[in-house]
Amino acid sequence: MINDLQTQQKNRQPLPETTLDPKEFRQALGTFTTGVTVVTAQGLDGTPVGVTANSFNSVSLNPPLVLWSLARKSQSLAAFESASHWAVHILAHDQNHLSGRFARSASGAEKFDGIEYEGGLGAAPLLSGCTTRLQCRTAHIYDGGDHIILVGEVLKFDKCDTPPLVFQSGNYAIATSTAQTVMPPVGEDPRNVSESSSLGYLLASAYLHFSAKMREHASELELNDIEYLILNALGTREARTYHELITLAAYTGRCVGRESINDLAARGMIRIDDEPDESSSPADHVDHSHIYLTDEGKVLVTRIARESQQVEESMMQQLGVPETIALRTLLSRFVRIHSPLIPYRWF
Ligand SMILES: Cc1cc2nc3c(=O)[nH]c(=O)nc-3n(C[C@H](O)[C@H](O)[C@H](O)COP(=O)(O)O)c2cc1C
């Protein structure tokens, strides 16, 4: 290891006290979007140490060098200053719990408690499930104000296709490409759909395209829209009442007629239990009769669930993994904000 820190510290010219507002300065730096890493090493006493760091960056391809900076006040300072090797874990989009765990000011033993890891080069702990892991030999350590800057030579790395976690202005995020790589179909006006189209138009178009695919699937199973909706609703929770199905269907602007229920019953898919609820009066007991899937209905519902998942997967495959995750995240947030009354997974 070439430890330049002591030489640096001897020659260090004290810089004048800053006049920058620390909070605003931190916020300004936070606008620089980064990934999130956990850097690990073996501590002096043999226990593992690990720190969440977004100061990681690439330095050189040949020789392969990377850097990150560690606060001088870190409990792990001595361990990293003396470690011959350390491992950088570029966290995957679903690993913010690891980021939180290694950002706690706690002993290495506490941070690693309950976590499985294997020993890497120089006995640096290797965590699993990350987007990329880089095993490094300490090449240089420089002074960096209230931080030290560690430069490592990358000796080994492995990576997978899981999208990385992103850190932006103090929040975890996921990155999606803004490149318009999908060409409009031949003959379609390219102005039809773009990022500047109104949100209502985009949501409606997405819904129509998606439901058209689902409708194809329903008609292959000889089900009309209403029957498809009824079976899906019973698939998520049985013993719904006719009244309940009407209420659920109303969210889609559709109307469940008694004939659809009777038709599905005649086809042996559902069973209507006409026993009135104790709470209901005889006059409305038809509306309140409970509807169950028959064994045949259950088989069909399982098939619907499996095949609609395949339709969804093939559509999402064309979109890409990070984009699908981002779409799900944003849509679920959108629905939660704007449709708080929609029943949980109602169809
Ligand atoms: C997203 C994120 C990025 C961070 N980046 C750094 C960093 O680059 N360097 C650093 O010293 N601390 C960084 N921290 C803070 C440390 O992870 C935190 O201070 C940790 O408690 C240090 O552990 P230790 O004192 O047990 O060594 C970051 C925290 C978070 C949540």
What distance lies between the first and last C-alpha atoms, to the nearest angstrom? 61 Å
Number of helices: 11
CATH architecture of the largest domain, by name, is: Roll
**Looking at CATH, which topology of the largest domain would you report?**
Pnp Oxidase, Chain A
- Structurally, the number of domains stands at 2
| DSSP, total strands | 15
Radius of gyration: 29 Å
Weakly predicted, low-confidence segments = none
Percentage of residues assigned to helices: 25-40%
Ligand catalogue? flavin mononucleotide
Query: Biggest sheet, strands in spatial order?
Result: 3-2-6-9-10-5-4
| Assigned CATH superfamily of the largest domain | Electron Transport, Fmn-binding Protein, Chain A
Overall 3D geometry?
elongated
State the major sheet. Answer: 7 strands, antiparallel
- The H/E string reads HHEEEEEHEHHEEEEEEHHEHHEEHH
Strand % is 15-25%
Which structural class fits the helix and strand makeup?
A: alpha+beta
